[in-house]
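Tip: read the tokens left to right.
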């Protein structure tokens, strides 16, 4: 009796172990099968972009000093071709100053007319002497009070025509000085500060006002040295702002820095982007800018990780159907040619057709988490389940983004 009991226990143990073995094998086969992923070759618009973050600044944001005042021309007494004697009146300004001929000669050209503005150093006309030497005549050749403007250190304000908060156009009069000269707005914008009043002595080099244009905005982003060579002035830019998550703003590249900033052995370059229509954006808001480098319609593309490299060859792994249900699924290595690419997708220009399935290299461990592809030396093609390495950096460090139609292949 004892003998039969022992035999029964042994049979039960052996049966249980066999069942555990076959069930575990079946589960393992199912898990491995589940780990084999494929994706279909898609067709659509593929874009390559370089992106970066920055903040909103004003394109025009500058101090205004009195070192470039103007005089208004009242009349011009000569024209091109006239012969003049030393001391003849050439130009009269509205403040009474007069520019006279510095020597005998012939007027070769006249650059101003009645009502013209004459800044310091402005060439009013050109005169040729008896030795056929032509020289310019400027406002500083005046015999009146404007001579002090060239070498003087300050002016006295007579009338201040603006106040803080005023919006001015370029050329608007800001200050009129007692010598008859005028300080004009060099750019359009808002007067954000004003530090002069009637009767004040105004040093030529010190700011008397500050102008900011809140309707002309830009953002400056930092671009990696590997990507900056792709960025050119005039390229289209899509901008988003943290303050307006669901809104996009258009822009264009206006400047690419010629000198980079090095940090930890890597250089980055500032790229300035003008915001075409700032809408409700405000100075200081944080932005993300995506610069469109290249775009192609009706491109065939697959995920970057589906393409492998072996020397000069690029290829994908295409699963093939088997006639026997019991046999393992087989794969073929298909050589392809690639085109443009971003961080997520690469264009296939030869070797595949839309709808073809390609294998994505992912393998499931004994647990239920997926592991990335294993690196194969030399990009080899191992037997059995393929676990080769993706080939090359198609997308660049900063570039990326999905195709514009947003489609993703994957089963």
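Filled-in amino acids:
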């Amino acid at each position: 009796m004892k003998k039969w009991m022992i035999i029964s226990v042994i049979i039960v143990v052996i049966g249980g172990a066999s069942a555990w073995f076959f069930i575990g094998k079946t589960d393992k086969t199912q898990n491995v099968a589940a780990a084999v992923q494929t994706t279909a070759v898609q067709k659509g618009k593929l874009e390559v972009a370089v992106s970066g973050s920055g903040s909103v600044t004003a394109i025009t944001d500058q101090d205004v000093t009195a070192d470039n005042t103007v005089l208004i021309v009242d009349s011009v007494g000569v024209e091109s071709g006239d012969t003049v004697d030393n001391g003849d009146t050439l130009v009269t300004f509205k403040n009474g100053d007069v520019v006279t001929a510095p020597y005998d000669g012939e007027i070769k050209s006249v650059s101003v007319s009645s009502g013209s503005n004459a800044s310091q150093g402005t060439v009013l006309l050109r005169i040729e002497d008896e030795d056929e030497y032509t020289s310019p005549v400027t406002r500083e050749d005046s015999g009146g009070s404007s001579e002090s403007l060239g070498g003087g250190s300050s002016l006295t304000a007579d009338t201040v025509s603006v106040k803080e908060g005023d919006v001015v156009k370029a050329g608007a009069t800001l200050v009129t000085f007692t010598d008859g000269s005028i300080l004009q707005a060099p750019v359009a914008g808002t007067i954000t500060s004003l530090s002069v009043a009637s009767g004040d002595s105004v040093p030529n080099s010190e700011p008397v006002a500050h102008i900011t244009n809140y309707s002309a905005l830009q953002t400056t982003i930092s671009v990696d040295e590997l990507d900056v060579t792709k960025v050119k002035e005039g390229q289209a830019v899509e901008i988003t702002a943290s303050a307006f998550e669901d809104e996009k703003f258009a822009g264009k590249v206006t400047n690419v820095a010629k000198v980079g900033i090095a940090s930890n052995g890597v250089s980055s370059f500032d790229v300035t982007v003008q915001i075409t229509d700032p809408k409700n954006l405000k100075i200081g808001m944080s932005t993300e800018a995506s610069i469109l480098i290249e775009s192609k319609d009706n491109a065939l593309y697959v995920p970057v990780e589906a393409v492998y490299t072996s020397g000069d060859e690029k290829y994908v792994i295409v699963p093939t159907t088997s006639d026997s249900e019991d046999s393992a699924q087989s794969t073929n290595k298909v050589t392809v040619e690639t085109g443009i690419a971003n961080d997520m997708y690469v264009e296939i220009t030869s070797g595949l057709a839309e709808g073809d399935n390609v294998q994505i290299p992912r393998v499931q461990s004994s647990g239920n988490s997926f592991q990335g592809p294993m690196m194969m030396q030399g990009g080899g093609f191992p037997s059995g389940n393929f676990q080769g390495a993706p080939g090359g950096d198609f997308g660049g460090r900063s570039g990326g983004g999905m195709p514009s139609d947003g489609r993703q292949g994957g089963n």
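The mean pLDDT is 81. The first helix runs from residue 2 to 35.
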